[in-house]
């Protein structure tokens, strides 16, 4: 009788541990999905701002067509890859960030444009959005780290393997130029 109770207690304890680990993994996986969705919200905001910025700059910068086209093409590519994995998406977003940086560098040569209220408002919105994207990426990567750790540590790694929980990719910078400090020139 007593061995049966002990075995039953062990089974109940193992079942509770399994359920707790499974629920923890589900919560963390959902947090990663939410963090990714927050990046999407901010990227959508940026996608909406870029055409307005390009159109405002076009009025002043007639001969910088290549830069404007690069921004537009990078935006379109990033939008097309909106359902891609974190690695591909990070690369496309990095190219868009790089193109936007080149555009803002070109703007430095146009004092009338820099004083235009529409441009200043768009530039401020874009800067704010870029900051939000950075914070969203950081939150996403923090969420992925917690989730990946949970899928690798004992005993939750057993539950993760049994229930098909897969490791997620971090949102990483893929372009070497983005890792370098930007050059600022006031000439």
Could you describe the 3D structure shown?
It is built from seven helices and no strands. With about 190 residues, it is mostly helical. It has a single domain, classed as LemA-like domain (de novo design (two linked rop proteins)). α2 runs antiparallel to α3 (about 85-105). The longest helix is centred in the first third of the chain and has 59 residues, at about 1-60. The termini are far apart.
Helix-strand blueprint:
Layout: H1 2-60, H2 65-80, H3 86-107, H4 111-115, H5 117-152, H6 156-163, H7 176-179
What key attributes describe this structure?
187 residues, 0% strand, 7 helices, single chain, de novo design (two linked rop proteins), mainly alpha
Report the sheet-strand fraction.
Answer: under 5%
Shape: rod-shaped
CATH superfamily: LemA-like domain
Query: What is the CATH topology descriptor?
Result: de novo design (two linked rop proteins)
Total domain count: 1
Average per-residue pLDDT, rounded, comes to: 80
Q: Over the alpha carbons, how many angstroms does the gyration radius reach?
A: 24 Å
CATH architecture: Up-down Bundle
> What is the number of E strands?
0
């Amino acid at each position: 009788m007593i061995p049966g109770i002990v075995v039953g207690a062990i089974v109940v304890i193992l079942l509770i541990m399994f359920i707790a680990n499974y629920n923890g993994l589900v919560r963390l996986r959902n947090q990663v999905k939410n963090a990714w969705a927050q990046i999407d919200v901010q990227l959508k905001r940026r996608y909406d701002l870029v055409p307005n910025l390009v159109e405002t700059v076009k009025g002043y910068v007639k001969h910088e067509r290549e830069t404007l086209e690069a921004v537009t093409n990078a935006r379109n590519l990033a939008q097309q890859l909106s359902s891609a994995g974190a690695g591909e998406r990070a690369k496309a977003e990095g190219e868009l960030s790089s193109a936007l940086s080149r555009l803002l560098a070109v703007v430095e040569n146009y004092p009338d444009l820099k004083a235009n209220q529409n441009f200043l408002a768009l530039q401020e919105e874009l800067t704010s959005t870029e900051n939000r994207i950075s914070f969203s990426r950081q939150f996403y990567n923090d969420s992925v780290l917690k989730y990946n750790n949970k899928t690798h540590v004992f005993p939750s790694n057993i539950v993760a393997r049994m229930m098909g929980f897969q490791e997620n990719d971090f949102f990483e910078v893929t372009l070497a130029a983005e890792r370098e400090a930007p050059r600022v020139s006031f000439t």
